[in-house]
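User: Hi! I'm working on a homework problem where we have to compare a predicted structure to a textbook description. Could you give me the structure for the chain below?
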Amino acid sequence: MSDRGLIAGLVLAAGASVRHRGGLKLLLPFDGITVVRASVCAPVTAGLRPIVVVVGHRAEEVRAAVGEEEVELVENPRYREGVAGSLSAGIRHLAAQSDIEAAAILLGDEPGVSPAVIRDVADAWRGGGAPVARAVYRDRPGHPVIVDRSLFPMLQGGEGDRGLSSVLDRRGLGFLPVHIDLKAPVDIDTPADYRRAIRDRGKDERRGRK
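Assistant: Happy to help. Predicted structure tokens:
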């Protein structure tokens, strides 16, 4: 087990928005910026370093939307094969940096994850002694998922559309649940999801939640 030090942010933003028939969802407006930019700003604000963003479909447009000042961009040319390849590409990039002790995995199409939640899960991982810590919202487990460096080799070389949960379940690895007294943020897959994410953000602003 590592010494519970530096946590990197890993944002997966390579997908082709197959289920979202209104264009590339990552480039849609959200809170005055774009969906993907909002998804990247949260770990930046939470203090994670470095922030790595994996791009693929329409990579140059996503790069421009993210901005390159505070992130490291990794391209996954095999993004059509599924999310596991993007996770593998990002983890390989982080594994080459010896000072990184863990990765906080987030999705580029989930802009409602707040910096406060990321910090809560990071604090729990640092203090909990488990290799994996995960946000568990009122209605379901969600992101971020923080994975210790000792598990990086297991996450490399993945194939297909199996996400992180499938990999961990297949290996019989549990996780430290970090209970978040909020509804899980919307994972934007469809136009209806996007509309719901916008409505939820409006409610958050009225309540003053950050």
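For your comparison, note the following. The two ends are 32 Å apart (CA to CA). The mean pLDDT is 88. Good luck with the assignment!
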